[in-house]
Each structure stands twice: as structure tokens, then as C-alpha cells.
Design goal:
The complex is a heterotrimer of chains A (about 150), B (about 130) and C (about 375). Chain A has about 150 residues and is α+β, with helices and mostly antiparallel strands. Chain A has two domains: about 60 residues, Electron transport complex subunit B, putative Fe-S cluster (3-methyladenine DNA Glycosylase II, Chain A, domain 3), CATH 1.10.15.40; about 80 residues, Alpha-Beta Plaits (2-Layer Sandwich). In chain A, about 30% of the residues lie in helices and about 10% in strands. In chain A, a hairpin with a 2-residue loop joins strand 2 and strand 3. In chain B, about 30% of the residues lie in helices and about 30% in strands. Chain B has a six-stranded mixed β-barrel with strand order 1-5-2-4-3-6. In chain B, helix 2 runs antiparallel to helix 3. The radius of gyration of chain B is 15 Å and the shape is globular. Chain C is of the alpha/beta class and about 375 residues long. The chains are: A alpha+beta (about 150), B alpha/beta (about 130), C alpha/beta (about 375). Chains in contact: A-C, B-C. At the B-C interface, helix 2, helix 5 and helix 6 of B face helix 1, helix 4, helix 7, helix 13 and helix 16 of C. Bound molecules: iron/sulfur cluster (SF4) (4 copies).
Chain lengths: ~150, ~130, ~375
Amino acid sequence: MPTPMEVYQLLPMTNCKKCGESTCMAFAVKLIRGEVGLEACTPLFEEDRYKDKLSKLQELFETVEGATETGLVIDTDKCTGCGNCVVACPVNVANDPHGTAVGRGPTNDRVILRVKDGVVVASNVHECRRFGKNRILCDLCIVTCPSGAIEFV
Amino acid sequence: MAGISRLIQAPEYEIKILIISDIFQSAESCRGRISREYQDLSAVVYLDKEDMKAWSIKDGMNVTLFNENGKIVVTGRSSKEEHRGIGLMPPSIYSMRLASFDETSGAIPLMVDARIRRGDGEVTGIRELCKKI
Amino acid sequence: MSTQVTATCPGCSCLCDDIEVVIEESEIREVGNACRKGASLFLNPDHPAYDLDAAIDEAIEILKNAKSPAIFGLDNTTIEAQRIAIKISEKLGCMIEDYSSIRYGDLLNFVVSSRIKTCTLDDVRDRADISIFWGSDAMSSQPRHLSRFSYFPRGEHKQKGWEFDRYAISIDIYRSPTAKVCREFLKVSPGQDPALMDEILGILSGKPPGSKELLKFSNEIKKADFGVIFAGSGLIHGLNRDMDKLIWFMEGLNEYGEFYLIPMVKGYNMRGFVEMMKRAQRQIEGSFLRALLDGGIDAALIVGADPMSDLPYSLSKKLLDIQTIVIDPRDTPTTEIADLVIHTGIAGVDNGGSAMRMDGVEFELVPCIKRDTPSDEAVLTRILEGL
Ligand code: SF4
Ligand code: SF4
Ligand code: SF4
Ligand code: SF4
């Protein structure tokens, strides 16, 4: 995943504030977290001299295609379907106390993570603790994964 | 003659092979153990990155593993973990070609002494290993 | 029209019984909750049809003509098939063996006869404070073990969540995927497991610890009311098969809390075979491997196993010299060299039966689709009748 510095260097670096952020760096951080879209930086699109930077940025964020709105990306090639993340996710536990919370398959549709055809799939991602107004930096699905299959971008 | 062939062969190094389960290989083995997919996941040795540098082995390069029990050509892959001098292989007809049976204890070893060298042609086919030599 | 059934997975000795299978036009379309390994079993295509009657006649011929046949494998088949295989061995007066003593020495016998204290995986989920993976790598061999029982789930007396309620440690000669997700990893040099046991019991009785990790681990043992060792073949190797040492260590731990051991068996029904042998009042006589090596066998009936891939070449090459009948759902190097292959279905997918989880709890395997492929049990029954 790109670092804020890498993204920053591809932005106009003028701190013009047109995007609503006070600095390009702040914008870069939010961009990586998926909290803002590239289009908010209007100079990138309006000024021809940023053409190369723009295409590089678009390329960079295209690679994280498949990311959900919270930036949750699952590399299904790495996933073993062990279900550690499914059982450890606090939202799964809260929403499905008789299924995933006790180590079994989900008993309802309100879970975020579940295993299908041997790999994890995500739904209801808006409920993820990393998302929304009261977000926290939850990383339980990441630290419980034996194969590094989950990332947030 | 033997001297010349040794000269043109890549240098050999000592290696310990640790035979350990790999979930991807074992998932594939549920479907069968003759297929190309199974071969690709079994005919491999995961090597320490530093060892690879020292032995001039690149990720994806074929390597020859041999000892008094036999010889196989497999793909060398770089391991995510550090284990100097140790190569990881999943249990299969490949790793078993190098393993010896401990007649006193009756155990099948998890750790095998072997030697490694770069190259030497195609990866040994599974059917080839089923034949009598 | 699609239907959904709940199935039990014979992918490993966890026997997960919460697998959601979606069936459409008598084919499995989707598999929920099973890990990668389990899913690949359920999503396996069927075998092409073959002449079963002829195959069974041939198997009977081979066994009848053999002077010293043997039956081998059996850890990946149902209890019902195991029982019949035991009967065949009685009828033929021949050796029968699975992989349990090859891989685990006397461990299974000690567990089954209660000489080593054991508990169920449900007890683990509901009560365990500490899970010790010793020479076992669940994440690679029993992928849902930690999520279903030994680390992550809430249980009856474990309501706060794994971060607060449980401690998991991996003791192994390398940093396995299980070690990566456990709280602690203790690296042990090959063969140093007995010394490590001495050291742990030493620290518990007040000796100074050799490392911070060991001190932490010992403190966790002291804190724990309920602990479990998940013993893998790595531990058996590390102990050089010395079961007395293990019994001594377990007794030592039990002075600090309730400590149990569950063997992390390979083969979904190895535990079942050991139990069935005990119930049939049979013991493994001799060793299949040694007999194979010494040329003491002239025919082998191999059920649900792939010795060509499991045994060192010095042994497996002997299979090429004898008559071999292989009963297995898959194509393997062993079916490749066999004189006769009888492809069977997978229990829990194509056929029914029952099996024992690693902790000895029995589960029924109900077929989820209808296919013509016969079960191991059906094939073995017909062989027994024909003898
Ligand atoms: S609009 Fe673009 S150039 Fe202006 S501050 Fe935001 S990121 Fe920087
Ligand atoms: S970050 Fe936390 S809440 Fe979000 S999916 Fe992962 S475990 Fe669940
Ligand atoms: S913990 Fe990792 S490997 Fe396991 S199911 Fe989740 S994403 Fe897949
Ligand atoms: S953990 Fe074992 S029993 Fe459970 S789904 Fe995976 S392979 Fe099947």
C-alpha cells in the first residue's frame, strides 16, 4: 500500500486547500484511508501540468480496486479460510452471539466476515469499527490472520 | 570425467530439509495427488532469503536436492520466515524421496539432511517418482 | 431450484459440523464455513464410472491368493469401514495397521486408555485458559481448530473474548503459521523437548527462569485453571517417542491446575481406528513398515491412504514388488502404482458413515449429494463376503 509520503509527492503540493483539507499531506492521509476521493483535489484535474501525477495516482488507487468502502481488502489467494478473523471480529461477535461468537458459522446476515468456498468474503462493511463517526483503529481481523490475507488501505 | 562434470556443475551446499504441512498443498491434495497443480505445490523447497543470496538461487529457479536416498529437482522459492540452512518442504512423494526410515524407532523423520545445488533441468515429474529405479 | 443442507466435513480431525452446502441440479454449487481444505473436498468432481463388480472380484482373488497379506491406511475412512477392515483382517488372519503408531508412537493408546488425561474440544472452548500447541501446527493441518475451539471463540466460561480470556502458545522447531497467531512462540531445538519440560517444571517449582518467555509462560501456567496441550507429531519426535517423559510432565503440570492433552491427529478418523481396535480387543501386531521392508508381505489392501507419498522411498519402493489394492476417492501416487484401484466416494459428501473427532467425540457424516460412487464400507463389505 502507498505511504502518505508517496501519495503526497504525487499531489500538487501547493496546500491550496481547495479539497477542504488544510494541507496536501492531510489530504494524502485521508485518501489512503479511503475517506476522500481523488476528485476532491480539483487542481489535479484542471491543470495540465499535473497530468502525469494524476495518471500515476489513478494507477496507484486502481490497484486497490476491490477494496470496500472502509478500505478492507482481502487477498483470497492467501486466505486459508481458517475463520480466525470471522470469530475474532467484534462486530461479528456482537451481531451473531450464537454463531460466529462461539466459533461456528454465522447464523444471520449481519456479520461482516464469513467464509465461502474456502475463503473469506466481506459484507456489511459499513459496520466495521474502522468506519463511521465513532471509528477506532480495530485490527483484530488482521492480527488473527495467519497468512496476512487482510489489509486496510 | 567425474572431475570435469563436477567442474561444470553448480556448487553444492549442505541443507536440512524440514518437512512441514502446507495448507495450500494439502487442500490441493484433497482433489488428487497426480495433477499439475499438486505437483507445483509439492515439488518446491522454501529457502531462507540469506541462503538464497549466498547460494545464488533466485526465487522460482529450479534446484536439485539429493542425498544417499535419492535426487529430485524442485522449484526453489523464497520463504517469508528466517531459517538459515533449513529448507521447508511439504510432505509428498518429493520430500519422501530424500527421507530415510529410522529402523530403530520406526519413525518417519521430519528433518532430513541433504545437499542442494542450482539448476539441473526440469522439475521431476510425479509419475517419474512412482517408477522403480 | 437450489437446496441448502448442513454437512460435516471429513477434511481433518476437527470434523466441522456447520458446513452449509448449496446444491443445484444434484451438484454442489457453494460451500459455506468450510476452510480452504474442507471446501476443496466438497467441490471435488465425481469419478468416471467403472466396473465395480469386476474390481471387487479381482480384489478378492488377490487377497485369497496372497500368502501374507496386510491391511494398511484406514485413518481417512469411516468407523463402519474400519470395523469391516478389522473383520477382514481377522478372517485373513493378517496384520492391520494405520498411521497412529508410525506418527505418534504410543500416544493414541495412552490417550484412549486414559493413561494421559484428555478432554473434549467443547471443554476447551468452554473452559480452557491456556492452549499449548506443542509440535503441532493447527493452522496448516486443522485450519479451524483455533477459531472453533482453542483460541478465538467465546465459550460458556469464556465470555470476555480471547484477548482477555485465553493464552495460546506454540512450541515448535520453527515459526509455523500457528506460532504467528499465538500470543507466544517458544522455539525449541530439535530433540530438546525433554530438556524444555524439565526447565518448565523447574521454574514452576521456583528455579530461576532461563528466559523472559519461559517466565511468562510459567506464570500463565500458574494462573490457569484449565490448560490443554495439543500434541503433534513434532512433540513425539522431539521426545524421541519417550511417553514416560510426557506422562511425567503432564503429572507435573497437574499440580498447578487441570491439564489435559489432545492428540492433533492427521487423518480425519485416526482416533476412530484406535478406538475400534480397542473395542475389537485387537492390538497392532508387528509393524507394517517393518514387514514391508523385510519382504514379509506379498499383498496389501490399502484403504484411504497414500503410502507412496507418506513413506520414505526405501519403504514405498517395496510396494512396487507386491500386489496392491487401493481403495481411495483420489488419484494418488499409490493408485498410480497399484495393481487394482477401487475409487470410492467421500464420506460426508457422497456417502454416509460416522467418524471420531480428534477428541473422541463421534459425528455422523451424512451424504449431501447422491452419486453412484460406492462407499469404502460398501466395497469392504463385499470383499469380506467374498472371502
Ligand atoms: S486541493 Fe489538492 S493541491 Fe490543494 S490542498 Fe488539497 S490536495 Fe493539495
Ligand atoms: S477491523 Fe475490526 S470490526 Fe472491522 S472487520 Fe476487522 S475485526 Fe471486524
Ligand atoms: S484469518 Fe486470514 S486466512 Fe483466516 S479466514 Fe480470515 S482472512 Fe482468511
Ligand atoms: S477445519 Fe478440518 S473439518 Fe473443519 S472445515 Fe477445515 S478441513 Fe474441514
